[in-house]
Write a structure and sequence with these properties.
Low-confidence stretches: 1-24
Protein name: SusE outer membrane protein domain-containing protein
Largest sheet: 6 strands, mixed
Pfam family, one: SusE
CATH architecture of the largest domain: Sandwich
Order of helices and strands: HEEEEEEEEEHEEEEHEEEEEEEE
Shape: elongated
Distance between the termini: 96 Å
Number of strands: 21
Number of helices: 3
CATH topology of the largest domain: Immunoglobulin-like
InterPro entries: SusE
Number of domains: 2
Structural class: mainly beta
CATH superfamily of the largest domain: Immunoglobulins
Organism: Lacibacter luteus
CATH class of the largest domain: Mainly Beta
Mean pLDDT: 88
Strand content: 35-45%
């Protein structure tokens, strides 16, 4: 009798597990509706002095993911893309951000203008009008892109203004390079002729350029006031001799010199907070 009961219990367990597996296998994705994206306006006003005003509100519908058991209870991720008209969301300037569960996003003038100017790095000087396209893609799970559903594309136009530079510009409009990556060595103030040969030309309010002969190796810093290290600019960690980011701070590391001697063009863009070095 005991043996019979044990056999019966064994088969009952097997039957239960099999039934659970069959039920589990029936929980499959069934359908979803592509989200609909709408914008509060097609002509966005961006003006200096109005940074706290609302510029654009984007809203989108829930895709209502459904499984064979009903509506999904999983979190939905929404990925927003903004790109210039004609780029088909594939340009290097495309802006992408993600939201969890939210069905709208309101951008202030300052926030949207900063995205267009400092993140997308659009040309803003001289000021011009741009046409942008936006779309939203929903997906299941915050950390995945499962079952993506793409919305319609909306278009808006605006004229971004130059946002505040990422790095403070030289207060006096002057900039020099000094260090053992140049013939001058580490001199501050720079004596003649280096005070002229290693002085940058201001090509705009936020961009400076210098064409100069450089031996291989060494390091350098950028100074905006002769004899003053306190207001210098240095490279942020992660940069190379050919380019990277910078900040205004009396700190290391310096900018590394190039690996080969020659004439080079150094460009410093305070608007974007970056520098580049090109061999001529």
């Amino acid at each position: 009798m005991k043996s019979y009961i044990n056999r019966f219990s064994f088969f009952a367990v097997i039957l239960f597990l099999f039934a659970c597996e069959k039920v589990e296998n029936k929980i499959n994705y069934k359908s979803g509706t592509n989200p609909t994206l709408t914008g509060s306006t097609t002509t966005v006003r961006l003006e200096a002095g109005e940074e706290s005003n609302v510029a654009l509100r984007l809203s989108w519908t829930n895709p209502n993911y459904q499984f064979t058991t009903g509506l999904s209870s999983h979190d939905v991720k929404y990925t927003l893309e903004i790109d210039t008209l004609g780029a088909n969301f594939s340009s290097s300037k495309k802006y992408t951000t993600a939201f969890s569960k939210d069905l709208s996003k309101t951008y202030t003038v300052g926030e949207l203008n900063g995205i267009l100017g400092n993140t997308m790095r659009l040309q803003l000087d001289p000021r011009r009008s741009y046409t942008f396209q936006a779309r939203i893609t929903s997906s299941l799970g915050v950390n995945t892109d499962a079952v993506p559903l793409v919305s319609n594309i909306i278009t808006f136009t605006t004229s971004p203004f130059p946002p505040p530079p990422k790095v403070a510009v030289p207060t006096g409009g002057t900039l020099w390079a000094t260090g053992d990556a140049f013939a001058s060595g580490w001199q501050n103030p720079l004596p003649s002729p280096y005070s002229t040969s290693q002085q940058f030309t201001r090509v705009s309010t936020t961009k400076y350029e210098l064409t100069v002969s450089m031996p291989s190796g060494g390091n350098y810093k950028l100074i905006q006031t002769q004899g003053d290290w306190g207001t210098q600019y240095h490279m942020l960690t992660g940069g190379t001799w050919a380019g990277g980011e910078l900040e205004k701070r009396d700190a290391d590391p310096g900018f590394p010199g190039p690996p080969a001697a020659g004439n080079y063009k150094i460009t410093v863009d305070f608007q974007l907070g970056v520098f580049s070095v090109v061999k001529l």
